[in-house]
Design goal:
Keywords: Hydrolase. This protein has about 425 residues and is of the alpha/beta class. About 25% of the residues lie in helices and about 25% in strands. It has eight helices and 20 strands. The strands form four sheets. An eight-stranded mixed beta sheet has the order 11-12-14-13-17-18-19-20, with helices on both faces. Strands 2, 3, 6, 7, 8 and 10 form a six-stranded antiparallel beta sheet that branches. Strands 4-5-1-9 form a four-stranded mixed beta sheet, with no helix packed on it.
Amino acid sequence: MQNSHSSTFIYKLQISLKEGSSMTKINKAWFCYALAGVLSLGGALVGCESTPPASQPEVIASVTFKIKVPNSTPSEDEIFMISDFDDFFNLGVIEKYTATREEDGFYYLEVPQPNVDHFYFLFARRSDERLKEVAESGKLRPDRFYQYKGADEQVEITIENWEDFPTDLKLGDTVSPNVHQVADFNMPQLGRTTDLVIYLPPDYQSVSTQKYPVIYMTDGQNLFDEFTSFAGEWRIDEILDKEIAAGTMPPVIIVGIYNGPKRANEYIPWDFGFMGQPEQSVADQFIDFIQETLKPYIDSNYRTLSGATNTGIAGSSFGGLFALYAGITQPDTFGMVGAFSPSVWVNLGDAKYPGIKELVTEGDLSAQLRLYMDGGAEEPPAIDEMRMMKRLLKEQKFPEQQLMIVEDPTGGHNERSWSARFPVALKWLLTADS
C-alpha cells in the first residue's frame, strides 16, 4: 500500500528465503512486493515467485470490524477494505469486502478467515475514485494488522481522516521550539548535502555550563515534524520534553540526519543483490561523514560530552541495521546503539555477500558497548530475528548487562511503534551504567 520503510513491512531481498528462514510463503510474497516499493526500483525481485502462496489449514473464525468514520464522510460513499490477501502481487487492489452502515452510525464488516492466519489492511471509501484512510494530520498512516484468534471477534476501528479531506498542518506545527534545523549541510564523503534537525534539552540555554550526551539518528525527517514525515513522526521532542521535565530521563541532544535518494545504499552495510544486479553499499562513507564532518561540527557548536560512552547511534529498519554496524565496527566513536526493528535479514542465506552473522562473529564486541534492539509481533518474523540476534551475541559472550532486547507483542514496522518504545530504549541506554 505504501512504498516506504516507515509504513510497509520490508523484509527479504533474495536473502532470507533460504536455509534457516522462518518465513512462510505468504510472508515471502508480501515482503517481496513490499521491498520492491521500498527501493523504488519496480519490477520483480530475484527469488520471488509469481505463484500464489500455499494454503494453510482452515480455521473456522471471523473478525467483525466496527468502524467509526469522520463525521464529514459522505453518506453515499461505500466503505471497503483493501487487504494483502487473495492476490499478493497486486497488493492494495483487492476491494472484496464492503462495510454496511447500521442505524447506530457505525459501519460493520465481517471478514471470515481466508487461507492465512493474519493480514494487513487499510480502509478506503468509494466516490468517483478510491480514497484511502490517512492519519488525522493528512499524512499516510501505517498499514493495519489483524491476527486471527481461532474464535470470532469484534474489533473497533476509528478512521481518523480521508486523503482528500483538507488539513491545516504546516511545516513546524508539531515541532518543539528547542528543535533547530540546519539546512543543506555538506556531506563531502557522499557527494551530497542533507538537512539536520537538532533537539536541545529544554534547559540548554538557561544552564550554560552543562554538557550533554548525543544520539545521532537516521531518517531525521521522521523524528520531530509531522509535516516532513512520511507516515507519522516519532514525537521525540514531545517525549523528551515531558520525560526530562519530570526527571525520568537524563537530558540529551538528538541529531537527526535526513535520508537521501540512495537510502538503502547508505544504510545497508554490505553490497547486496537486487533484481539479479549488485548494489554497492556506501555505509562506510556514511560513517566517515558522521565521524569526520558531522560529529566535529556538533561538538564544536554545542555543549556535548564527546566521548564514546556518551555518544550513540540509532535508527529503524535499514537505519537500525546501520546503527548496529556503526556501533560494532566503531566502538571508539559510538558507545550506545539503538536498533529499532533492524533489518538484520539483509543478505541472510546469501553466500555471495556478508551479513549480520559475519558482523557479530567478526566484530569488536569487547568494548563497553550498550546495545538496544527490538522487534514487533506485527512485523513477522522480527521476533524470531531478535531471538537469533540474542543467540549470536550470547555465543560471542557479549555481556548480558550491556544488552537489552524488547519483543513488542503489538508492535509494527512503523513510526508509531518505534515512538512507543523510544523512551524505554533511550532511558536504558543513558542510565545503563548508573
